[in-house]
Design a protein that fits this description.
The protein has one helix and eleven strands; from the N terminus they run αβββββββββββ. By secondary structure, it is mainly beta. It has one domain: Lipocalin (Beta Barrel), CATH 2.40.128.100. Strands 1, 2, 3, 4, 5, 6, 7, 8, 9, 10 and 11 form an eleven-stranded antiparallel β-sheet that branches.
Length: 226
Amino acid sequence: MMADYPHLLRTVTLTAVCLTAAPAAAAPEEGLTFSLVYGRWETVLHDAATTSPVTYRRVGVEALEPIHPNIQLGLVAGYAFLTQENQPITAGLELDGGYGGVLVRAEVLRTSRLVAHLGGEYNFQRVDDKSADQTLTMDSHEFMAHAEFTLRLSALWSAGIGAHYLDISSEQRLRGTTRATHAQDSHEHYYSSARLELNAGGDGAIGVTVHKGALDGYALYFQRRY
């Protein structure tokens, strides 16, 4: 699977170059970009003995601010809800809590129709479930790397594709009458994405992103630039 992604990235880059004839480059984006995001994803964690499918939903915000003409630095935060299969410690439970993180995006190519970004992201998530005599807490550290291309199709529509790397390290802690600690990591690491975005007028946009691979699901977002 790992061998396919360098090929995918080369193909994406070549396609992007072919789609854009060398017009004069547009100016980089300026100002604060604020997004409201809802997403639902599935991934798989594993330890030495088992693999455990995980489903989580998030409702959160993302804010990106230029710190250089071609570099944006951002913060993400929100609520998270998680269920996990094939683990007795989390069986039948929906854990909830929050997440937060930082991200950086570097613009590496811009023409009148095409924009390419490279980026990195780190998130920390803590979800738990409490009863009268037990507390279950699950902490996750998420590291991601992104290569994304956005093509302007018309004044209203744009589309994007991406290749991504994901690494999750999680720890579950059961405290109370029973005590246990269990660590898991990502079972797979690579995924791809496809995105469609509608210009909502002015500096607003509405979009949907679909992910496939190590991260499998979708995200809906409402975005505005200030």
